[in-house]
Design brief:
By secondary structure, the chain is an alpha+beta fold. About 30% of the residues lie in helices and about 20% in strands. The chain contains eight helices and eleven strands. The strands form three sheets. A five-stranded antiparallel β-sheet has the order 1-6-7-5-9. Strands 2-3-4-8 form a four-stranded antiparallel β-sheet. A hairpin with a 2-residue loop joins strand 10 and strand 11. Helix 5 packs across helix 8 and helix 7 crosses helix 8. The radius of gyration is 21 Å and the shape is elongated. The two termini are about 30 Å apart. The chain binds zinc ion. The site of zinc ion has 7 residues, from loops. Zinc ion binds next to loops.
Amino acid sequence: VPELPEVETVCRGLAPVMVGETLVRVEQRRPDLRFPFPEGFVGRLEGRVVDRIVRRAKFVQVHLNDGQVLIMHLGMSGRFTIDTGDAETAPGRFVHDVGGIAAHDHVVFRMSSGACVTYNDPRRFGYMDLVPAGADLEANKHFAGLGVEPLGNAFNAEHLAWRARGKTQDLKAFLLDQRNVAGLGNIYVCEALFRSRLSPRRRAGTLARKSGRASPRAELLVREIKATLQDAIAAGGSSLRDYAHADGSLGYFQHTFRAYDREGGACSREGCGGTIKRIVQSARSTFYCGRCQR
Ligand SMILES: [Zn+2]
């Protein structure tokens, strides 16, 4: 499942081939993905120029020059393949040149530069929508209720403490709640809690002091959430260069995790000697070290 760093990597990978270019031709090969495509999808895209591409939580927002925003969510298995038309950097191009249609290639964007961006999604949990830009964008059904971006300045210890104050739910569930912070998934919550030495079972309310101000734990947690995501985005950036020379596909890369999916493994924190445990919280697996995470 693509998480925030993968989606960020997708945005950074799409920008060089789409921004400033016209969507010359759009091929929509099915009526729906997870949801139906919006009415007149192809006609509302063709001829428009891409102004910029930004990420919001786990959404890709493609801002067009006519005030529309193409919203794309990768669901469980969505990915993009870029064919720049340059055989040396995109060996996958022959797939399109011979007119073959891969069964799971659902949307193809042909850009004025000659580049071809293909959306492939075997499980079809992804979706696309077209919405107006501007003040209405954040109020849109896709974004309404979403909390602050974890990499933005608004995500800080005081914000976290304000959201957590008095809450008895566990820290894991608190961080997965998209109203508190947007775009954090199971993997990066586990990793950030490990790096912060905070137990996923700790009460969320302990991020705030009695006065309501942030506790030192909140400072630490915010710092480690940002660092965990930034490290993963950096890893994605390097994989982007690798992929550009492989098959041009974006959005998936090899991670190294310290806690996630390491049940039974020795804790990697120097001098700890503990073992990574797996528990189930809110029906999801949590991985953590019972010795150094408190
Ligand atoms: Zn440990």
